[in-house]
Specification:
little secondary structure; about 0% strand; flat
């Protein structure tokens, strides 16, 4: 039956993963750097804010050689 009722497949309640509270860091955390009062996002798993987190190396996306 095309366009049939699919309500039987709908799941109600909190999702199994993603925004589930157990998969995120605690709310109200403050940056660990002395003197910094930045409140960290629950999605930020680091102990420091963006300003106090060191740079990370990311490989280039293209394998083409750079122009001399």
């Amino acid at each position: 039956m095309v366009g049939g009722n699919t309500r039987g497949n709908v799941q109600f309640g909190t999702p199994d993963r993603g925004k589930r509270i157990a998969s995120r860091a605690a709310s109200g955390r403050v940056c660990e750097r002395e003197g910094c009062s930045t409140i960290l996002s629950t999605y930020n798993t680091s102990g420091t804010c963006w300003t106090h987190t060191g740079a990370t190396y990311r490989p280039r996306l293209s394998h083409a050689q750079a122009a001399p």
